[in-house]
GNAT family N-acetyltransferase
Amino acid sequence: MSFKLRAWSPDDLPSLVRNANNPAIAGFMNDQFPHPYTKETGRNFIAMASQESPLHIFAIEVEGEAVGGIGIHPRTNIERKNAEMGYWLGEPFWGRGIITEAVKQLVAYGFQTFDINRIFARPFGTNLASQRVLEKAGFKLEGRFEKTFIKNGEYLDELVYAVRRPE
């Protein structure tokens, strides 16, 4: 299935709320990604994502509609050569290879756009699909930290996957 990464637009609000308002997605995201996902949450998110320069957070568009999001977040201070990646996709689009290809595109964009040497992602130990996505996109598991995250009252393992800038 074809998709493209692009900037978020205020016109994306209905599809953003429709796709993001899902406990199956929120359950694998940090608490900044709420459930329920409201129009107000979506408006605030689009306003924030739209003012970044260079762009850090992209909509994943399928057939003209924003059905997910992916972002790269360069770090500062002693972590300044690193960036964290996060992503989500509307449930009707799972299992089609979209996120794996979006991760690959964002990795290329990240190394081209930012002065970084490493991109990392931190999926929950329970998020097997995200672990597979990262492995298919060339990320290596660097570490597992037991019960470091707390989500919905449950302690979860934190995994750290990373990819390095090609030499």
